[in-house]
């Protein structure tokens, strides 16, 4: 069986989990510590980052966006219209632009700060670099999330889904990031009703169910996290 080396609150890992579920594909989930440079993981991915997908054919694919497109190419064809990537090159370019926006910019300005300070640091040992949460990083994330939420609302108000008429990888890349932030109760949903409506649509999909059951000892989910109607 295929394997996914991941962490439940790695947004890139969640992105891949959503795509796997959307294609009704199964894999053994192997939980890793993103803050530890494990020699075994470095052999598979010299960057030392998650996720790492090991397919049935022993192909090793690393990185959320790369794994997602690999799944589109290898698993998505049999799904007919549910391809998650558009037919035309210009439309695919827009999907890739947004995947990079959410996976890099939203992640770097919001998700990484909050997950590192409020989740990862709770799990680290002193030998692994444990320090107290950085209030400045949390404040920066809370300021930046409003801008990103407004951008999601802007896209959703002009298109059926974020990248165009059809559901694509762009929606799952954004939702993976937002789901981590929402678990922590750090999404100001009152800031943009259109973004909130888009998220309600995507988190109501069957592929989202496993994410909504994720729990973390010592860090409870926000009260509305698993509520499909908020």
Global Rg: 17 Å
Low-confidence parts = none
User: Ends: how far apart?
Assistant: 36 Å
Number of strands: 4
Give the name of the CATH architecture of the largest domain: Up-down Bundle
Subunit structure: Homodimer.
EC number: 2.5.1.18
GO molecular function, one term: glutathione transferase activity
InterPro entries: Glutathione-S-Trfase_C-like (IPR010987), Glutathione-S-Trfase_C_sf (IPR036282), Glutathione_S-Trfase (IPR040079), Glutathione_S-Trfase_N (IPR004045), GST_C (IPR004046), Thioredoxin-like_sf (IPR036249)
Please tell me about this protein's structure.
Residues 1-79 form the GST N-terminal domain. Homodimer. With 230 residues, the protein is α+β, with helices and mostly antiparallel strands. The protein folds into 2 domains: 3-79, Glutaredoxin, CATH 3.40.30; 89-212, Glutathione S-transferase Yfyf (Class Pi), Chain A, domain 2 (Up-down Bundle), CATH 1.20.1050.10. Helix content is 52%, strand content 6%. It has 8 helices and 4 strands; from the N terminus they run E-H-E-H-E-E-H-H-H-H-H-H. It has helices at residues 11-22, 39-44, 64-75, 89-123, 135-158, 169-183, 193-203, 209-212; strands at 3-6, 28-31, 52-54, 60-62. It has a 4-stranded mixed sheet with strand order 2-1-3-4, covered by helices on one side.
